[in-house]
């Protein structure tokens, strides 16, 4: 996806090109982001952009993969909490911290999720599939640590509990992402309210809704 020519330039120059590219693609779709705008903002010529990446598509997908890697880093649990909800919220706080640390990357990811242009849509789906798998694997490990803090029935399948909680949490997250789809960063301005809502939903799942 990226040529060795790009890897040979200085880290400072690479960072400038990556940062400006993400900034532009966080505001414009793949088609709307003109090559001359990208090169102007990045401080390079069109010839150099093509020398480094071959074409705009490769540059776009390189930035997308770079963003995915950034937003899935550090999703590990160090085992410092004794309460189910503390561990669940620890996971959410890690994701929140990454998103607030990388606002342009978050906006870019949001733009990519809406991208439908045939030139990049298949590649986007493939990279998103890897992203979701990677994120799910890390989240499942953290959820397992949280589940171990609960007093489960002896007949409960732990793996099914983890899968159920993952689906449940994902559904709550999707609800909020839909609510804030046109203004994703506002979700994180209301993050404490979001966590409160998550706890209420999880309480329903864990403790039930009927009196025996």
From TrEMBL:
Fetch the InterPro entries from UniProt.
Homeodomain-like_sf, HTH-type_Tx_Regulator, HTH_TetR, Tet_transcr_reg_TetR-rel_C_sf
Q: Which UniProt keywords apply?
A: DNA-binding
Instruction: Spell out where the chain crosses the membrane.
Output: none
| Domain HTH tetR-type: start-end pairs | 11-71
- List the Gene Ontology MF annotations in alphabetical order: DNA binding
Superkingdom per UniProt: Bacteria
Q: Which residues bind DNA?
A: 34-53
Q: What is this protein called?
A: TetR family transcriptional regulator
Annotated source species? Pseudolactococcus chungangensis CAU 28 = DSM 22330
